[in-house]
Amino acid sequence: AGGGRLMDKFRKWYYNAAGFNKLGLMRDDTWYEDDDVKEAVRRLPEHLYNERMFRIKRALDLSLKHQILPKDQWVKYEEDEHYLEPYLKEVIRERLEREEWNKK
């Protein structure tokens, strides 16, 4: 049990040290957009896609101005949703299935 708490503290520390949350970004906003990620983003419901684009545009604006959000607006580790992950898993599963099918 003690090791789990230590790992959780490390994850929170690392999450904050990465700095993307200080720009209002979530973890899934920071993924490199390869073909799988692009397809997963394309499949997002409109409201999730719009929220993602808002966060990314705001982060770019803040970055250009060399600013960060006020601390009360930072994305907290506990509030970071992995909104893209289910769509990405489905895209990867379909791609692997297609590749397997094409081998036959």
UniProtKB/TrEMBL annotation:
The keyword Electron transport applies. This is Cytochrome b-c1 complex subunit 7. The keyword Mitochondrion applies. Keywords: Electron transport, Membrane, Mitochondrion, Mitochondrion inner membrane, Respiratory chain, Transport. Belongs to the UQCRB/QCR7 family. PANTHER family: CYTOCHROME B-C1 COMPLEX SUBUNIT 7, UBIQUINOL-CYTOCHROME C REDUCTASE COMPLEX 14 KD PROTEIN. InterPro entries: QCR7, QCR7_sf. GO terms for biological process: mitochondrial electron transport, ubiquinol to cytochrome c. It comes from Probosciger aterrimus.
